[in-house]
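Ticket #4471: structure export looks truncated?
Reporter: QA, pipeline team
Priority: medium

Steps to reproduce: submit the single chain below to the structure queue and open the exported record.
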Amino acid sequence: MTVSEYNQSVKDFADRLYRFALKNLNDSDLAKDFVQDAYEKLWVRIEQVDYNKVKSYLFRTVVNAQIDRSRRAKLQQNHLASIDVHQTEEQTPFDVQEKIDEGVSRLTEIQRTVLTLRDYEGYSYQEIAELSGLSEDQVKVYIFRARKFLKAYIGQVEVLI
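Actual output as written to the record:
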């Protein structure tokens, strides 16, 4: 990869990479750090990374960083208190979105990643498989399980909306 191709990759992918990281992390500064770290790693390996595979490399780097962060957090935290899923009060659209975000945060790292890529970023199953290193069938299973969990977590979506 050349320096001009590296610069082009920043123009082409930095915003999408940031949105992806932000959706998974819910922390703007941390998302920016992950994107910056991904581009720093790319710069260090500029000679070894093929420009045609730079998108996969960048997303894979961010996904791996998120997984590492998640593993570290799990080691440091104690058991979380159970959250009462069922609310008896009427919910506003903001409450519904908050509940969805809360449910997404409770997914496994890989489920959250593939669900975000599919439902929020609009990637195809094939693209997600390439980015994540999973098979297309595995991606479909993870997305199915994530959606099933979210439906159970937030209750009857039709009633809430």
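Status: closed, not a bug. The export was complete when the record was re-opened. Leaving a note from the reviewer for reference: Residues 3-25 form the longest helix (23 residues).
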